[in-house]
Structure to design on (260 residues):
């Protein structure tokens, strides 16, 4: 490991201890298979895994590739597997993995573009497939008539499903996605519920057809890993079970449909 420069040590005091990170390296254009590369970095108690990767990239190996932006659990771009669990790299502290080494891998269930960078194309397509916007039935008052108000209780119906940051941790944790890659998946179903439960929306039946169009939703046995790993308190497992219930209502009752 290259020692930190004296100038850096003066401006940013570090403890003597170090910690090892084992980071997946993979360039599909050159490598036959992914491999793990170990880096030993200066340890600081307030370092998150993203800080460690930034340290490696700045001081040791500029070729390590990963996504990040906000460093505060908001943008959803730093999803990675940390010691086998999908986490946000900016929200998980090295101190929780002492003495190391910390295994850092790309999110499973996605193709890898390079190192920790996964291809999110299918995820984006699944999100847009549920038409994530308010769809009116054309009978609302004209815009000129003013706001289309909702009560706090109406907002509360869908609020938690609206907190998703599209980090894809739930897809990485989902055992159904692992065997049925075409399953529309937890976040997209949670997003569909967000609009289905919106008092201004009238496209619930349409979305229901989309998310139950594949039998894969019935393979979900409510293991709940998606909800367990979600960093924003969204409950996609609940959305999936609600969707199954709505779908069953549609089969059993002539008036069955999406309830608000
Ligand atoms: S539901 Fe949670 S885990 Fe899944 S993409 Fe949204 S924020 Fe991430
Ligand atoms: S960098 Fe934005 S959520 Fe981690």
């Amino acid at each position: 490991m290259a020692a930190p420069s004296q100038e850096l040590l003066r401006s940013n005091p570090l403890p003597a201890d170090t910690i090892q990170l084992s980071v997946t390296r993979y360039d599909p254009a050159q490598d036959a298979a992914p491999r793990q590369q170990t880096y030993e970095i200066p340890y600081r108690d307030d370092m998150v895994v993203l800080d460690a990767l930034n340290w490696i990239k700045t001081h040791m190996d500029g070729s390590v590739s990963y996504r990040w932006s906000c460093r505060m659990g908001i943008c959803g771009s730093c999803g990675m597997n940390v010691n086998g669990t999908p986490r946000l790299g900016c929200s998980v502290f090295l101190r929780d993995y002492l003495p190391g080494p910390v295994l850092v891998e790309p999110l499973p269930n996605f193709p890898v573009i390079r190192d920790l960078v996964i291809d999110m194309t299918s995820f984006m397509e699944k999100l847009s497939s549920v038409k994530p916007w308010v769809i009116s039935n054309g009978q609302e008052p004209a815009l000129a008539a003013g706001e289309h108000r909702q009560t706090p209780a109406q907002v509360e119906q869908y609020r938690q499903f609206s907190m998703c940051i599209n980090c894809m941790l739930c897809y990485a944790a989902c055992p159904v996605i692992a065997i049925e890659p075409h399953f529309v998946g937890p976040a997209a179903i949670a997003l569909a519920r967000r609009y289905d439960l919106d008092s201004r929306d009238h496209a619930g039946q349409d979305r229901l057809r989309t998310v139950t169009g594949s039998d894969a939703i019935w393979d979900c046995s409510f293991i709940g890993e998606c909800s367990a790993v979600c960093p924003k308190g969204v409950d996609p497992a609940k959305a999936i079970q609600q969707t199954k219930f709505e779908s069953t209502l549609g089969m059993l009752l002539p008036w069955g449909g999406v309830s608000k």
Remarks:
- The domain at 12-118 is CATH 3.10.20.30 (Ubiquitin-like (UB roll)).
- Residues 18 and 222 are 41 Å apart (CA to CA).
